[in-house]
Amino acid sequence: MGAALRETLAARLVDHCAVPSPTGAEGPLADRLEAEQRTRGAPVVRVGDSLVIGAPDPARPTVLLVGHLDTVPATDADATPRTATLDDGTAVVVGRGASDMKAGNVVALDLLGDDALRASSPWSLAVVLYAGEEGPAEGNALPAVLDAVPWLTDAALAVVLEPTDGRVELGCLGGLHARVVVAGEAAHSARPWHGRSALTAAGPLLGALDTRAPVARSVDGVPYHDVLVATQAWTGGLGPDGDGTSPRNVVPDRFTINVNLRFAPSRDLDAAETELRAELAALAGDVPITVDVIDRAPPAPPFRADPVVDRFVAAVGGDVGGKQAWTDVARFAERGVPALNFGPGATAQAHRRGEHVAVDALVDARTRLATFLAGDASAGSR
Asked: At the fourth CATH level, which superfamily is domain 2-171+300-373?
């Protein structure tokens, strides 16, 4: 059974990776999966290039296994999916998206196709495969899927199969991006005393951001860290792509820093924005700044006290911690659905050239999820 499962999951992942699905081009993969699932008689709802496979059973609480279909563009080292053996003897599947997150998709579909497990399970199982996760937030198709298929928001649990190295990662960080502008006065670079460089005036603020230590937080006993970092900077007024950047012989009158706050789910977006503005003002000291928040992503709580989450953690075992990033568990949390992160992919392999995932990780995730799905659902009703 173990050897057969290894071969099956590895072959299915190679096959899944063989259909390229970079963000914006998920259609061919969605077409193929839809046809396969309809052939086996599964209920399928298609929303654009996203799929909901399965249907709710009024007699059983629903568990959702959730993955995204899209990947970042392939490289020459992972464009041809294949099995391989690493120098240390580890059997892997190589392919773009193997870890992030087609491994999770394959595990989810294999569980959905296990008729005996589904028939005996106290849970009603459905799989959500959506488009647009790797691109800009406005292109993420999950909100449209949740709008189009209302019963999804009645689920007892959503398991987002992002790569977690087999850990259970609860909740996720919220995120704010702010453009912080330091003003100066333009002058010829040969006569800088006629102006004031906004770039060098920003030095104390940049130094303070550089030495700002992460702040440990605990939410329901789950650890997270708040981090505040500068991720981009440019002179001129239009943006980081070069347009509007000050000429080389001009003392710049404007210096913009993109500052990213990632914060624990111990407070909401508005409270975090208030804290961000206050901290930036304190770090800038006497340097006048303006702050424009341009992107806001809500955090997700760990749902540690939720009985279904508790049963999941107990059933799958292993390490449990907080998600030190943002994921689409937040979109489920906004709709009142308890959600967590758990997947076979390797976090260190996400988006890397030659992306791969261990075959043993596929088997491990499938086995542990099956243990949960075969367990008691007496606390699963919502």
From this structure: Zn peptidases (3.40.630.10)
